[in-house]
Amino acid sequence: MNNKPLILIVEDEEGICNFISAILLSNEYNVIKAAKGKEAVSMAASYCPDLILLDLGLPDMDGVEVLKTIRQWTRIPVVVVSARGHEREKVEALDLGADDYITKPFGTSELLARIRTAMRHSQKSMTENPSETGKINVGELEIDYSKRLVTIAGNEIHLTPIEYKIIVLLSRHIGKVLTHDFIIKEVWGPYTNEIQALRVNMANIRRKLEVNPAEPKYIVTEVSVGYRMVEDL
Ligand code: CA
Q1: Rounded distance from Cα 62 to ligand 1 centre (Å)
Q2: Distance between Cα 36 and ligand 1 center (Å)
Q3: Domain 6-127 belongs in CATH node 3.40.50.2300
Q4: 20-74: per-residue pLDDT in tens?
Q5: pTM of the full structure
Q6: Which of 157, 178, 203, 224 is the most buried (most CB within 10 A)?
Q7: How many whole angstroms from 82 Cα to the centroid of ligand 1?
Q8: Distance, CA 128 to ligand 1 centroid (Å)?
Q9: Edge to edge, what strands does the sheet with 30-34 contain?
Q10: In the CATH scheme, what architecture does the domain 131-229 have?
Q11: Are strands 6-10 and 51-55 parallel, antiparallel or unpaired?
């Protein structure tokens, strides 16, 4: 086999599976397929793919159960594929260690973007040291971690410590959706439910960061799931 990244597609609907497979094959990926959960678990173990695209609605076992089983022994990036309206399952999957999700029906560019982001994050977390140094730039936004400084077009943005924590967290996972629960636990600690505080803080952050806070471009809302800082504008 060559050096192209190997992706395991777990999907029981043949049409969708072939659609995804065709996109991936024409974009320099190798593909293996599983139509059932048990098959997916054993293929993940025997082939060690670089990424798994996991449909949550499988005939023999729940996609979330497949994810739980896989996560017992590997950090392989997993992008969950779900049907529209299944927000609870998506959130559950993300909180159980899925790297991202994509909702059916989806387009080619969205699929490829999710895959690239998830693979890059998994490589980063293996190679990068977690110290908070360096800078990140998105459009006119710059975050300088060593100076704890956030600027827009060179102008300093004054943030409260909580607002700064939220921005840094999102930027450390740039391109990736973070669930409400994950953000709250990281910012406020494990024993709180600060969903209202998170909403208020996010509104304040957007007021300071965005030209039009009602149509944010730096931090977007993933309805019923969480927030995502975009990678490029
Ligand atoms: Ca399905």
Answers
A1: 10
A2: 9
A3: yes
A4: 999 999 999 999 999 999 999 999 999 989 999 999 999 999 999 999 999 998 9
A5: 0.80
A6: 178
A7: 8
A8: 36
A9: 30-34, 6-10, 51-55, 78-82, 100-103
A10: Orthogonal Bundle (1.10)
A11: parallel
